[in-house]
Structures are given as C-alpha cells and as structure tokens.
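Collaborator request, handled under Task 6.
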Amino acid sequence: QVQLVESGGGLVQAGGSLRLSCAASARTFSAYAMGWFRQAPGKEREFVAAISRGGSTTYYAGSVKGRFTISRDNAKNTVDLQMNSLKPEDTAVYYCASLRDFFSVGSIYTSDRRYDYWGQGTQVTVSS
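Structure tokens returned to the collaborator:
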C-alpha cells in the first residue's frame, strides 16, 4: 500500500506560478513511476505529466508542455510539479498517482488506468 499526499495548491493570478508536491509513503519509491493528473469541474480527469522511476524520462500533455516541469527526488520520496505561466484553464483539482513498474526504469505512463495509487488531490485555481 502506498499513500500519496499532495500539497502546494492554491489561488493564483493568470501568469503566476505554483509548485505542487507529492509525498509518498512507499518504502521503495524508486520502484514507482509517477504521474500528475487533473480534473476540472464537469470534465473527465486528464493526464498532465509523468516521470519514470529513475527520473530520466518525462512526458507532458500538449496543453502544459513548456510551462510545467515534473521532477522527483527518490531520496526524499517526493515528486513535484512546477507550474509556470498559469492560465485560467489550468484550474482543476490536481492528483498525484503512482505505478509500480516491474519492467522498466525509463518508461512513463499517460493512462490513468495504469496507476495503482492516488492522492486525495489539491485544488489549483487560476483567476483571470
């Protein structure tokens, strides 16, 4: 069982920045690929960013590429999402998710169905 706890959400003006952090309870955090997803009111949950077990591979949704950066610290069991140049359409609840990856150190995963554990979410609101 892995527990994930997100933090860092809040209210920010358009063009501003926020840094989300996800703390994991996993004893072998480096065995897990990680992802960030978001869900806006009335919309389906969507992929935002993912990072491989070792951190060597990252991938972003087209809507956030160039503005968001995912990173991880396996020594601290954390994965962060730095969000810059925020837009009102980035408003959503952001979720951290983990996937035990037995096969690959460098793979990333964009489908939420692949992820085993989820945090409770943190609200990000961007005002215009």
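The cover message to the collaborator said: "Residues 51 and 58 are 4 Å apart (CA to CA). The chain is about 0% helix and 50% strand. Please let us know whether this matches your experimental observations."
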